Amino acid sequence: MIMDWSLIGRCGVRYTLVYAGLTVALTYAVTRSGIVLLCLFGLGLVALLFALGGTGTVRMGTATTNADSMGIASTIVDPADMQAKRMDSDIKVLFYGIGLLVFAAVALVLFG
């Protein structure tokens, strides 16, 4: 299975840093409440648990030939492996949940 690290990095930055960070910052700026930060922390935990185990899907890698598994270069390429792919929704929820957990915990320590 080929990992698209640039896609994972972009998704991680977008959903963890930008969206979750803005959610926590704007919510705290509007409410100035530690209880709301605690609720965001709980929401991040629920999102994380849902993304890790609640979807019920199994991710399958690309099947390799015996030549590939022995380290012999193969000229057979699956065109689907070369196509640009969007990040799955459960991975977006995972990154967003991680961001909510981290930013809400930091905000609770700093402002709560």
TrEMBL record:
Sorted keywords for this record are: Membrane, Transmembrane, Transmembrane helix
Question: DUF8070 domain location, by residue?
Answer: 3-111
The record's listing under Pfam families reads: DUF8070
Keyword presence, DNA damage: no
Q: Which InterPro entries match?
A: DUF8070
Membrane-spanning segments: 12-29, 35-52, 93-111
Q: What is this protein called?
A: DUF8070 domain-containing protein
Q: Which organism is it from?
A: Haladaptatus pallidirubidus
